[in-house]
Amino acid sequence: MIANSANALQAVLSGESAPLLLDPDAQPRLLLVDDEPRLLSSLHELLQDRGYQLVTAASGSEALAQLSKLRFDLVLLDLRLPDIGGHEIMDFINEKGIDAEVIVMSGEVGIDAAIGALKRGAYDYLRKPYSREELLQTVANALKQRRLAQANRRIATQLENSEKMYRYLVDSSPDIIYTLNHEGKFTFVNDRAYQLLGFTREELIGKHYSILVHEEDLERARYVFNERRVDERASRNVELRLKCHQGHNQDRTFSNTVMTISLNSIGMHVPDAEVKKLEFFGTYGVARDITDRKRAEEVISYQAYHDILTDLPNRILFKDRLGLAVIQAKRKQSELAVMFIDLDRFKLVNDTLGHVKGDELLQQVAVRLKSCLRRGDTLARQGGDEFTIVLPELRDRDDARLIADKFLECLQAPFDLDGHSVHISASIGIAIYPGDGESIDELLRHADIAMYQVKAQGKNGHSFYHNSMLDVSHQKVVLEQALRRALEQGELEMYYQPQVDVITGRIVGAEGLMRWNHPQRGLLSAGEFLPFAEESGLMLPISDWMIGALCRDMLQWNMAGGQPIRLSLNLSPQYLDRGDFFEKMRGSLVRYGISPSQIEVEITENICIRNPQYAIEQLNKLCQLGVSVAIDDFGTGYSSLAYLHRFPIHTIKVDQSFVKEIHDEHGHYPVILAIISIARGLGLHLIAEGVETEVQARYLKANGCLTMQGYLYYRPISLTAFLDVLRGQGPATGVQAPRAHLA
Fold this sequence. Notes:
Keywords: Phosphoprotein. Residues 162-233 form the PAS domain. GO terms for molecular function: catalytic activity. Helix 12 runs antiparallel to helix 13 (355-371). The longest helix is centred in the N-terminal third of the chain and has 41 residues, at 132-172. Helix 26 (694-702) links the parallel strand 25 and strand 26 (707-709). The strands form five sheets. The chain has an eight-stranded mixed β-barrel with strand order 18-19-21-22-23-24-25-26, surrounded by six helices. The protein has a five-stranded parallel beta sheet with strand order 2-1-3-4-5, with helices on both faces. The chain has a five-stranded antiparallel beta sheet with strand order 7-6-10-9-8, sandwiched between helices. It contains 27 helices and 27 strands. It starts with a helix and ends in a 15-residue tail after the last helix.
């Protein structure tokens, strides 16, 4: 296509098929033909040195040979030649299309010879004997006329090429170029109109422009197509929709650069200071197709205000619609509801099935939630697994409660993700305008606070905002700030709960438990602040601190010459998921000179299902380093014998909830017996936690669990007290080296 256009343009520029034009600066070449040597020599002598190229021929055949071989501007021809007559030579010139003027010189007095020569196109006829001045003047006139004729042909060729060029450029333009007369009827339109709109030039010429314009744009088009102004005042970049012919079934959008020019009688306008008023007779315009650009702008605009995954309004559009709903509610003195929805257990689905399935779940949830809404309600995706809803024109709070109940009900049915049946629920917070806030941000913030209240109460429900919730939310902010300050000011401390071998009565290990020496509230247990640390993103820096604190405490014990005791630490799932966890652990052990065999990490069963392959890789690295691994709270989560084979587990801890059920040392407690049997069968070490009574201790010992921790033996104690206890029991004598225990 490009090559064809380039070839066409080259053809126009080169002027193919145009007649050959002679160089006006070249010396004219003359052919002198006469069979009398004296006359031929005299003629040659007369014309030489006058700026001519002279060639002579003494016969007709010689003249024909020269004419066939060379180009001549002028032939001085004698009619009476011995072989071929002058008339026959002129016939040859005409037949061959030789471009040369002919002056005939003849001694014949008859009129027929002269008429015959002039009929054959001779420029002039000179009768011998002719005067010297007459010949020279005739030759000069003939060559002058020839130059004028050549100049005319050159100008005509240039004009023809210029017109071809104009036609080519206009018809090859990517824009529609048109002219209208003073009545608004087309007087010219290029081929682009057919390519874009399907209308031929013949269908448009003489027709009014309105046949092309979309009905809704006719009023604006009237000013564009009837434009009379010129220069900067002319219409620029006016967007109109033009109709398409059958077969072009979509309206296209055009940006018109219209220029009105006043012309003189030959159709051109030349600015003249003396001209006071020019008569308007038409409009010239250029229409550029911007349909694709407009569609792209629409797509970009849509994507800027919608969530690409679910096709729901995003937070920007939601705030805009909520703002309009607030204005309307204020005008009508009515109520509206704002809901904040957070999906429960979505992260578990994302971690176990992957982000692709998580995205599919969000799409299905969006469809279900949308089906519960009334006309005029707005459902939007805030991001992640969070959705927001505005319910305008509430009759009362029950309307919002009914829709929230519908949401919870529609989410109860399982979701099918390519064969995986998934169950989720939602926590919904509701804020009512104007009672719970009059601004957009206030309503959203209060709905969010109500949602977190549902989360705290067990999830899968809805709650209306109440002012008392703001106090709880404020307390969380204060707690977060205080916890950050505790890290900075060294208010955290490690306590240790000893683990006892019931056969020897000796301490064989200890579980590290974190405490917070709060300036106002005193000593806080881990359960009072670590769950919040998980929510607020503080678990990572706290875990970093814990590893360092454990290593520093163990260094203090080792330097005091104490017996080798293995200390265990509880590992947060968030911390295990972090890519540099292993390097953090190894770096701390190297920095403090702690043997990895003195460390045991405790993980919960949930770690094993979040990202099992990654967890296996991280735990294998620890084991290769020499750190052992224990399963904490075994039997309370997603218990599976499969992960006991796949994961590098060394120890199982019996959860205290099972131990508390032991009230009779002669009773039957199948769950505990099953866990003991599993540990024995897999060759794993076993620790019972939460042992508080002699009955519990005797039952566990009788059934094979020989390592215990709990208030029956020791409460969690500070490092100083723990070291004192270890020193007090003295060195082990004849006792097997203590096995490391998880806590």
